[in-house]
Amino acid sequence: MGKIILVTGGARSGKSKFAEKLALKLGNGRAAYIATAQIFDEEMAHRVKLHQARRNNFWTTYEAPFYADKAISKAAESFDVILFDCVTIYLSNFICAANLDDVEKINCDAENLIGALINAAENSNATIIFVSNEVGAGIVPENKLARIFRDIAGLANQQIAAHAEKVFLTVAGIAVDIREQGLANS
Fold it and tell me: Is 85 in contact with 34 (CB distance < 8 Å)?
């Protein structure tokens, strides 16, 4: 049975760097990387290049903006540790293709989408490290799309955390295992 670790935090909190170091440590210097980003503009291209520059030939990358559960299963055939970066970008891909008029359906489909990731992780023999943004700590967004995204991301983080052995919160480049600290729901 696979093991799940969740690494969450705000933008530029250090979550990806921490998750990359953790993955290489757990994988004895070798890990798979599931990349979920789609590049639509120069800013996103720059962000992807920053992530790629940190990785070396110890990583094998699987591009999976959609159907990432299949990428997890495929990567788990060859790797003991898989880094999934990131859940919120993966959800963005899904939301941008969804009909925003049916919020109940979006919520249900998003829950199923995350459930498929969890099932693929648990049915593997690998450790899967999911990176996800913590987006719910700010103000209520002023537009419908941003509110839907915030709500779905928060629910997805809860769904993954419920199955995770460890849940790290990163702030200012420091990661704390909040499950170990006893701060998780009882």
Answer: yes
The tens digit of pLDDT for each residue in 129-169 reads 999 999 988 788 899 899 999 999 999 999 999 999 999 99
Give residue for tokens 């990567």.
75
d(CA 104, CA 124): 30
Give, as one character, the DSSP assignment of residue 115.
Answer: H
pTM: 0.92
When computed from its CA atoms, the radius of gyration of the chain, rounded to whole angstroms, is 16
CA distance 14 to 173: 4
Active-site option among 17, 47, 51, 179: 51
Orientation angle between helical segments 68-76 and 103-122, nearest 10 degrees: 0
- In whole angstroms, what is the distance from residue 124 CA to residue 120 CA? 6
Q: Is 163 a catalytic residue?
A: no
